[in-house]
Amino acid sequence: MANPPIDFILAAEELLLLKEPVEKANRSIELAKQWFGSSLQEQQQAQAHSSAGAVRHLPEAGRPEQPVLVDAQSLPKRGLGSEHGRVALLHSLAHIEFNAINLALDAVYRFREMPLDYIGDWLRVASDEGQHFMLLVDRLDSLGVKYGDLPAHDGLWEMARRTDHDVLVRMALVPRILEARGLDVAPPMIKKLRAQKDHLSADILDRIYTDEITHVDIGNRWFRYVCEQRGLNGVDVFRDLLKGHASAYLRSPYNDAARLQAGFSEAEMVVIREMEIEYKQAARH
Which domain holds residue 101? Predict the structure, then answer.
């Protein structure tokens, strides 16, 4: 007897609410495989079935009791010249990747009316983030540390809460601002890790960096798709969304080459720099 078709939207919701991080990561990887192994008819049926269901506001995604969440400013700054500093970096990245799984699953669950290619893209992102998380967890284990042993902050999911009302805002501010930040900071981190002969950690960051270019490109693509559907000028919308607090996430220097490869335009890079300056000037007054 054939197995019933998978309700991918319901499955994304179940994984989003799942608290155990390793299980969440591994099942996200499997869910993406199932999506890409399913027929177009099965995908359409899953979307049609879920379209009648209510989308819930989720103040919290499923997460374990550890790590303890604290204000980002209270986290100690540690250099990469010591093992303690490298462990802190790897733990911070593991927390980011865990939250990135939740963000990708939420993008599927919350904005289920988007085209099937959108659902496939974000299930692929959830799978990639799950793989990144497992690589980091394994590396931490080799150093005698578990995910959750160190404190972390809730900045990524805070942005999920702030953008849960509109797919345009989500695509503008999560992949194009938060994830794109990783394109700026990863290459110097990789260089420092290699200088410390920590090639295992550097290789993991290199893999994450390469995949994040693709993820930012996905965000750029769907941001432009929604702008086109609504008859909006993407550069103007981006500028408007960056006004105020959102510009606090902008910090130069920027990795222009990677950002352009990931789908940013030259005009958008100009906007990013202008909005960073505007925010800094406003903060002084």
Answer: 8-49+80-284
Split into its structural domains, the chain has a count of 1
Structure tokens given for 201 = 């950690």
The structure's pTM equals: 0.94
Q: Are 248 and 219 in contact (CB under 8 A)?
A: no
Taking only the tens place, the pLDDT of each residue in 233-243 is: 999 999 999 98
Residue reference for tokens 């967890």 = 137
pLDDT of res. 266: 96
Q: How far apart are CA 154 and CA 175, in angstroms?
A: 16
DSSP letters, 34-62, are HHHTS-HHHHHHHHHHHTTSPPPP-SS--
Residue 62 included in any domain = no
Say whether pLDDT at 1 is over 50.
no
Residue 7: Cβ within 10 Å count: 17
Strand partners, 152: 69
In whole angstroms, what is the distance from residue 133 CA to residue 129 CA? Answer: 6
Does any domain span residue 260? yes
In a domain, 1, yes or no: no
What is the CATH number for 236? 1.20.1260.10
Q: Decide if 73 is inside a domain.
A: no
Residue-wise pLDDT tens digits, 68-78: 888 776 677 77
